[in-house]
Amino acid sequence: MAWKLVALVFVVALVWGCASFRPTSPVCLAGAHLDAYGRCQVQQAPGHHIPFRAGHKVKVMQGFHGYVSHKEDLAFSVDFGCELGTPIVASRRAVVWAVRKDSNSGCADQSCVDQANYVILDHGDGSYSEYYHLLHHGVTVKEGEHVCAGQVIGLCGNTGFSSGPHLHFAVSDAARHTIPVQFQELGRDNFGYVVPDTAYTSQNERQVHCGKTRYSDLSRDAFVHQGVLLRDAIPGVIVKDRRTMTIAGTYYGDHTHVAVHRKPASSGRWVEHCVPVDPKGRFLVTINWPQASFPNGFYWLMITGSDKNCASPGWAWSYKVRVDGDQNQTPKVR
Q1: CATH number of the domain encompassing residue 263
Q2: Measured in Å, how far apart are the chain's first and last C-alpha atoms?
Q3: Domain range holding 280?
Q4: Is 31 inside a domain boundary?
Q5: Residue 305, phi then psi, degrees to nearest 5
Q6: What is the tens place of the pLDDT at every residue in 69-128?
Q7: Residues 6+ apart with CB under 8 A from 189
Q8: What is the C-alpha separation between 176 and 157, in angstroms, rounded?
C-alpha cells in the first residue's frame, strides 16, 4: 500500500511539473516575430526582381546580416556593386513614395549616413522597396508617379555612408523594418535569397502596362504595441480629399484616454489630440490636416493611451505618413 501511495505522489508531482513548465521565449532575429506557438516567424517579400536591367550581371557585396552595416532594422538589406551611372530599375510595380536627389556628398563613415540620395517605392500591400546611394541628381522619378517593374528610377552612385559606388537595396514594412526579399531570378535556389560575393544576372524585363498601384494604408494592428486596435486602416498618404480623418478603435490598456500624436519628420514639436475611451475601451477621434499647419511633407504619426492632458506613458516606434494635398488617391501614371 505504501508503494502505491509513493507512486501516486510521484505521478501527481510529474504532472504538476509538466503543467507548470513554461519554456522561455526564443530570441528572434531582427525582422522576425513570435507566433501564437512561440516560434520565430519572418515576414517574406516575394515577387521581386533584381533591381537592374534584364541581362545585367551584378555581384552581391553584402547580404543579410552583413557585418559592415546590415544590422538591426537594416538586417535584411542587400548591397549590389555597380559602376557610377548604371541604371537602377524598380524591382516590382509600385508608386513612388519618397525621393531625394540633391546630395553630392558621401564618405565611408556613419557621419555621412543622412547624405544619401534615394528612391522609396510603395508596393500597395504595406511593403516598400528602398534604393540608396544614388548619383547626384540621378533620380529619374517623382513622388506620386506610378512605375512598372524594370523601369529606370535612378542611377548608381556613391552618396551617403558608402565606401564606393553601389546600390543599397531593401524591402521594408510600414515601420521601416527590413524583411527578407526573395528574388525571382533564383527560383527555388536558396529560397530565393542572394548570397554574398556571388554574381547574378537580372531578368527584370521592363513592363509596359502594369496597372495602377494605390498607396499602402497603415493596418488595423499598426499600434497594438500601444494597446490600440483600429477599426479601420489609416491612409499612409493624406491627400486633398482626406484632410479630415476619423479614427476609431479599441484601447486595451489602463489609461482613460487615447491620444493621436503628429510631428514633422524633419523637425518641430509634437501635436497631440486626445479623446476619452468608453467603459469598453472604445474611442472615436476626428483629426484634421489643414494646409496651414500641415503643409506637404512627411510626418511621424503615433497613437497611444494617455491621460486627459494627452500625456503618454512611454514612446515606441512611430509611422511616417506623407501629406500631399496636390495628389489624388490614384497616383499619376508616368
Answers
A1: 2.60.40.2550
A2: 88
A3: 217-323
A4: no
A5: -75, 155
A6: 898 889 999 999 999 999 999 999 999 999 999 999 999 988 998 999 999 999 998 899
A7: none
A8: 22
- Rounded to whole angstroms, the Cα distance separating 104 from 136 reads 5
The answer to whether residues 109 and 192 belong to one domain is yes
Cα 44 from chain centroid (whole Å): 12
φ and ψ at 321, to 5 degrees? -120, 160
> Which of these, 14, 43, 334, lies nearest to 174 by C-alpha position?
43
Task: Classify 281 in phi/psi space as left (phi over 0), alpha (psi -120 to 50) or beta.
Answer: left
When divided into structural domains, the chain yields a total of: 2
Which grid coordinates belong to 104?
A: 553630392
* Separation of alpha carbons 225 and 219, rounded Å: 13
Residue 132 and residue 51 share a domain: yes
Question: What integer pLDDT is reported at residue 281 of this predicted model?
Answer: 96
273 shares a domain with 172: no
Q: How far is CA 49 from the centre of its chain?
A: 18
The length of the chain, given as a count of residues: 334
Residue 63: CATH number of its domain:
2.70.70.10
Question: Do the domain assignments include residue 250?
Answer: yes
Identify the helix (H) or strand (E) that includes residue 333.
strand 332-333
Output the pTM of the full model. Answer: 0.81
Spacing of C-alpha 224 from chain mean position: 16
276 near 282, Cβ under 8 Å? Answer: no
Q: Which residue has the cell 474611442?
A: 283
Q: Rg of the chain's alpha carbons, rounded to an integer?
A: 24
Is residue 262 in a domain?
yes
Contact in structure between 21 and 38 (CB atoms under 8 Å): no
Classified as helix, coil or strand, 316 is coil
- The burial class, CB within 10 Å (0-12 / 13-18 / 19+), for 245 is middle
Q: Are 51 and 90 in contact (CB under 8 A)?
A: yes
Cell numbers for 164, please give them: 564606393
